[in-house]
Amino acid sequence: MELYQKTVFELSRLMNSREVSSVEVTQSFLDRIKEVEPHVRAFITHTPSMALETASLVDKKRLNGDNLHPLAGVPLAIKDNISTGGLRTTCASKILENYIPPYDATVFKLIKQVGMPLLGKTNMDEFAMGSSTENSAFFTTRNPWDLEKVPGGSSGGSAVAVSTGMAPLALGSDTGGSIRQPASFCGLYGLRPTYGRVSRYGLIAFASSLDQIGPFAMNPADCALLLELLAGHDPLDSTSYPGKVPGYVSSMEERLDGMKVGVIKHSNEKGFDPEIKDAVTKIANLLEKEGFAIDQVEMPRTDYGLGAYYLIAPSEASSNLGRYDGVRYGFNGGGDNIENMFSRTRGEGFGPEVKRRIMIGTYALSAGYYDAYYLKAMKVRTLIRQDYETAFKKFDILIGPTTPTPAFKIGEKADDPLEMYLSDICNITDALAGVPSLSVPAGMHSNNMPFGLQFTAPPFCEGRLFNVANYIYRNRDPLLPERPPASFRKGGTE
Amino acid sequence: MEYEVVIGLEIHLELQTQSKLFCSCSTSFGKEPNTNCCPVCLGLPGSLPVFNRKAIELAVTAALALNSSVQLNSRFDRKNYHYPDLPKAYQVSQYEKPIALGGCLELEIDDQVKKVNLERVHLEEEAGKLIHSGDSIIGSDYSKVDYNRAGIPLLEIVTKPDLCSGHEARLFLEELRMLLLYSGASDCKMEEGSLRCDANISLRPMGSKQLGTKAEVKNMNSFKAVEMALNYEAERQRQILISGGSVIQQTCHWDEEEKVTVPLRSKEGSSDYRYFPEPDLLPLLLEEKEVNIIKSVLPESPMDRRLRFQKEYGLAKSEASLFTSNRPLGEYFEIVALKYKDYSNLARWIQGDYLYQLREAGKSESALEPDKLVELLNLLDNGDINRPVAKELLAEMVRSGESPSRLVNEKGLKQISGHDMLLPLVEKVINENPDAVNNYLGGKEKALKFLIGQVMALSGGRADPGEVKKMLISKIAE
Question: Which of A8, A115, B43, B128 could, after both became Cys, cross-link B87 (CB 3.0–4.6 A)?
Answer without folding.
Answer: B43
